[in-house]
Design brief:
By secondary structure, this protein is mostly helical. It is built from 24 helices and five strands.
Length: about 575
């Protein structure tokens, strides 16, 4: 059987055209599937998917590393228009051939369910439309990546100004917050227009697939078999009942320590437990060198993975002008490596971001090296569990962020990030951030539930502003936004997922409750918690979400009671650490 080689360099991959790939797809389509050739046939298809995935990811990554690189954009669009559109059509026919054969490769039951679900979504009317949506969404990167502010005579990206939002000088915080927010608000019309175009495309995609709305389409596309939209609403109600009061308590304590009458938006990130913001590192090199020691203490394999990535130039961690916002990790399945992208500017949150993306990378390596994964269709885990790997890494790292003392001299070594007092504050910040994130996640997710089930109303940006404001007031009531109502109302403009990855946000919330369970398990048995998590990581996407959670020693929870247990544990730990400062 004709099968493509996966022994290809990056340069060779990027030179591949549709004419190079077409004979391999035709050979698969012309092969009658039988019990004798099933494994070979599926393996050949798997190899093709790996090749196309790596080409896609390499080209996309290039567009985000420099949003003004016209050649990178053209190459990515050319790939989508000439390769991806044809691959999708062939993949649909190959899926139908496999399903028609009624043959089930050993251990491929979940893979077949995913294929069957996606086959049901397929229609040729959506082929070019899906590509157009993908390309259109990248306009967000260009708009956000060009947002700069003139600050004390120098041009700064909005991300570069973030460290000043943790300044202990309240006037400075207000000035930088205003400057950043006003610059972002200047793109209101452009982002509203982009949103309307995306909404119209997404609604048409759903209609073409015979579904009522894009929420139904996306639910199937994301293979959400373990929970329903109703479960999500139940989860958000639990967050409102359990997490929002806890966050309000923390915010009130924060307000009192700051000595202000009301918390304003520029007061939310400053650390009120210290007279200086946390400064984990001075240079990018220092961050990269020190974090290896943290990974080493979680598990030596993780340090080896990171060192390999560093040597192979497999991450782009630090902010610069014309770099896309946000962070992500994508895989190079042919090369056998992941690639990580961040926008670090020297904050504690950047350190946590590297730990987070490190979790994604180590998930890839554990699946790639230790998982019994025969076909690439079994490789990628449900997103909800992929984020457990990332968020769990953040929490497992908390005990190891401090500087160690040399046994003979008693002096602190240079291989850690924080002295004891700052280490306690860093842990408090991490736990506090988790609690504050959950209500924000509810706002983002519920906004999208509304938008995609009310597409006509959501095509009016003013309605979006109102729904976002109402959700914000419901879940995040602790800051006074008087005089900045427009900035609050357009908060949905500043969440990249809403534009680029629709409905990819509830995963963070469900994963966070899973990661907190990993953290609680580590309090009782650290090595055991890491071992259970890695056992689940190695499974990739070969089993379902519930089984992945169970293998990691945790469970998927939407109810108030298990969430209350986690919140109580976090609040107790914060109280204990605060008493030691």
């Amino acid at each position: 059987m004709l099968s493509i080689t996966t022994e290809l360099t990056a340069q060779e991959l990027l030179s591949i055209t549709w004419d190079d790939l077409k004979p391999y797809y035709q050979a698969l389509e012309n092969t009658r599937i039988s019990p004798d050739n099933l494994g070979e046939w599926l393996g050949a298809w798997s190899d093709l998917i790996m090749v196309v995935t790596e080409i896609n990811n390499r080209l996309y990554i290039s567009t985000t590393r420099n949003t003004t690189d016209i050649k990178a954009k053209e190459a990515f669009k050319r790939f989508l228009d000439t390769i991806q559109v044809n691959v999708k059509a062939f993949d649909q026919r190959l899926t139908e051939d496999l399903l028609t054969s009624q043959l089930v490769p050993p251990g491929f039951e979940l893979g077949l369910l995913n294929l069957r679900t996606r086959a049901a979504l397929f229609t040729e009317r959506n082929l070019s439309l899906l590509n157009d949506q993908y390309v259109t969404a990248t306009e967000y990167d260009e708009i956000a990546g060009s947002q700069t502010v003139e600050w004390h005579g120098a041009e700064k990206t909005v991300a570069e100004l973030q460290p000043l939002l943790v300044s202990t000088d309240r006037d400075e915080r207000e000035q930088v917050w205003r400057a950043s927010a006003e610059r972002q608000l200047a793109d209101r019309a452009a982002l509203n227009g982009l949103w309307v175009r995306l909404m119209e495309m997404r609604n048409r995609i759903a209609i073409n697939a015979g579904l009522k709305n894009f929420r139904e389409y996306r639910w199937l596309e994301l293979s959400r078999f373990a929970y329903t939209p109703e479960d999500c609403h139940r989860y958000h109600d639990a967050i409102e009942a359990v997490v929002v009061p806890a966050v309000s308590q923390l915010m009130e304590e924060h307000r009192q320590r700051l000595g202000v009458e009301k918390l304003r938006p520029w007061d939310l990130l400053v650390e009120s437990l210290s007279d200086q913001p946390l400064k984990p590192y001075e240079t990018p090199r220092e961050l990269e060198e020190k974090i290896v020691g943290v990974f080493e203490k979680i598990h030596p394999d993780f340090a080896r993975y990171f060192e390999h990535m560093r040597a192979a130039d497999l991450f782009d961690l630090h902010n610069r002008n014309n770099k896309a916002p946000g962070g992500y990790t994508l895989e190079y399945p042919v090369s056998g490596d992941p690639f990580s992208f961040l926008n670090c500017v020297g904050l504690h949150s950047d350190l946590m971001g590297v730990l987070h993306e490190g979790g994604h990378c180590f998930h890839f390596y554990d699946t790639f090296k230790f998982g019994n994964i025969q076909y690439y269709q079994q490789f990628n885990p449900p997103i909800e569990f992929a984020e457990v790997a990332a968020m769990g890494m953040e929490l497992l790292a908390l005990p190891h962020l401090g500087k160690e003392k040399a046994l003979l001299t008693g002096r602190t070594k240079a291989n850690g990030f924080y002295d004891p007092a700052d280490h306690r504050i860093a842990e408090i910040q991490a736990l506090r951030t988790i609690l504050a994130f959950l209500p924000f996640m509810s706002v983002v997710d519920l906004f999208q539930h509304w938008a995609y089930t009310h597409p006509a109303a959501a095509c009016e940006p003013a309605n979006c502003d109102q729904v976002w404001s109402d959700l914000w007031d419901r879940f995040l009531p602790d800051a006074d936004w008087s005089g900045f109502e427009d900035i609050k109302a357009t908060g949905w403009h500043r969440k990249i997922h809403i534009f680029s990855d629709p409905f990819y946000y509830i995963e963070y919330g469900l994963a966070q409750t899973g990661a907190l369970q990993v953290w609680l398990n580590s309090q009782r048995d650290y090595k055991g918690a890491v071992k259970s998590l890695r056992k689940a990581l190695a499974l990739g996407g070969s089993v379902g979400l519930q089984e992945l959670f169970a293998t990691a020693g945790i469970r998927l929870a939407f109810e108030r009671e298990p969430l209350q247990v986690l919140v109580d544990a976090v609040m107790e730990r914060i109280e204990s650490l605060t008493a030691q400062i």
